[in-house]
Amino acid sequence: MTEDVLNNTAVADAPTVPEKKVMRLEKVGKVVSNKMEKTIVVEVSYLKKHRLYKKAIRRTSRFKAHDEQNECKIGDVVRIEECRPISKEKHFRLAEIIKHSDRV
Question: What is the mean pLDDT of residues 86-93?
Fold first, then answer.
């Protein structure tokens, strides 16, 4: 029995623990500004019902996202994901560019 413990066979037979997947908030929006270095501003639109009249109202939110290679242009449709705070207002990073804009 001590030989098994010394040879680590007991440890090898232990079940493996699956990796924990972190659920990050993802948003899809349009790039409205890329004037900063390694930062883009993404505008996300969504519909919300009015609490009294129940009419759908279009709302927009703007998020600053980290773009490491400065590859986004104004008008691109992008997917951003939540990450650790990079600066005071930047809490998202660019996950992928879904559609490039036609602007030059």
Answer: 97
In a domain, 2, yes or no: no
Burial class (CB in 10 A: 0-12, 13-18, 19+), 82: middle
How high does pLDDT run on average in the chain? 88
Cα–Cα distance measured from residue 70 to residue 13, given in angstroms and rounded to the nearest whole number: 48
Residue 91, both tokens: 């809490």
Q: Structural domain tally of the chain?
A: 1
For residue 42, the enclosing domain spans 19-99
pLDDT at 22 over 90: no
CATH code, domain carrying 44:
2.40.50.140
pTM, two decimal places? 0.76
Distance in angstroms (rounded) separating the CA atoms of residues 73 and 77: 9
Ranges of H-type helices in the chain: 2-6, 9-12
